[in-house]
Backbone:
């Protein structure tokens, strides 16, 4: 198995960082993800949209008090895809 | 963080970096250990005093006050946790759930048993054994091996206390709180400072 077999939706530096972060959390808000991944607002938004479009994460927009709050959580499909990605990555590393 | 495509080694490095970033709130767990350790230490001391003064039947007031004080601290701290430390991981939630369950068990037993029995010994032994269980589970969830040692302090102390008389049993219990609650709390805070 070669590197091209890795899930292209996850296999980018920022999307992988987001998926890894969300895998260990119930949910994380946009600010937390930005801080953890050290990404810019625009960049993070673009990649979150890509993950959401693939059905790997669920993005919920709401408010905390009067401030807008965007919360992300990994979907069951996203968790399955992430586990599959880790398996594929393991196989790549031990090729 | 750049968003270019990566090879397998880089992917592994990204995963490693993110796991470090999302480390559990070890320092906060340490603060909880210290706060609850101090509260229980003082409540045990007061229990001793009440016994000496012949007011053992009022011990439930002592433990109810300790429970309310500890719960108020935990609620206040919990409310500020999100702003202080970011998202809460599943490990954090499991540790919190474990200690909430144990605290309810501790206080139910500590409130009820003195009303029906005169002896403080079974109560203290139960507290020590349950404390050891809590420390072991916390150590496993937070991946801190030294907590096995702290759990042993509680369990061995519990066994020793079963053969001791009052008030020596309370003195040993207070020593165990220092070794098995205040020290682990300080150790967790120290661990985070060292790693960062």
Residues:
């Amino acid at each position: 198995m070669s590197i091209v077999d890795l899930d292209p939706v996850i296999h980018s530096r920022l999307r992988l960082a987001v998926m890894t972060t969300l895998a260990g959390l119930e949910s994380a808000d946009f600010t937390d993800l930005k801080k953890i991944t050290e990404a810019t607002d625009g960049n993070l938004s673009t990649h979150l949209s890509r993950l959401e479009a693939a059905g790997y994460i669920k993005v919920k927009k709401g408010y905390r008090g009067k401030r807008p709050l965007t919360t992300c959580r990994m979907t069951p499909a996203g968790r399955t895809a992430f586990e599959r990605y880790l398996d594929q990555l393991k196989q790549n590393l031990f090729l | 963080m750049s968003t270019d495509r990566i090879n397998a080694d880089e992917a592994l490095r990204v995963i490693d970096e993110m796991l470090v970033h999302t480390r559990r709130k070890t320092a906060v767990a340490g603060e909880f250990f210290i706060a609850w350790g101090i509260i229980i230490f003082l409540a045990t001391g007061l229990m001793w005093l009440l016994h000496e003064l012949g007011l053992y039947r009022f011990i439930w007031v002592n433990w109810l006050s300790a429970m309310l004080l500890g719960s108020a601290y935990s609620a206040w701290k919990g409310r500020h946790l999100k702003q202080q430390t970011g998202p809460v991981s599943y490990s954090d939630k499991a540790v919190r759930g474990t200690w909430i369950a144990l605290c309810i068990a501790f206080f139910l037993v500590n409130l009820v048993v003195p009303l029906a029995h005169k002896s403080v010994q079974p109560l203290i032994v139960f507290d020590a054994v349950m404390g050891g269980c809590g420390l072991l589970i916390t150590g496993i969830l937070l991946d801190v091996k030294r907590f096995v040692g702290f759990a042993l302090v509680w369990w061995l102390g519990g066994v020793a206390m079963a053969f001791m008389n009052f008030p020596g049993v309370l003195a040993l219990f207070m020593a165990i709180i220092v070794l098995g609650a205040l020290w682990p709390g300080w150790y967790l805070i120290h661990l985070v400072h060292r790693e960062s």
Remarks:
- The CA atoms of residues 157 and 176 of chain B lie 7 Å apart.
- Chain B touches chain A at residues 1-12, 14-15, 17-19, 21-22, 86-91, 93 (CB under 8 Å).
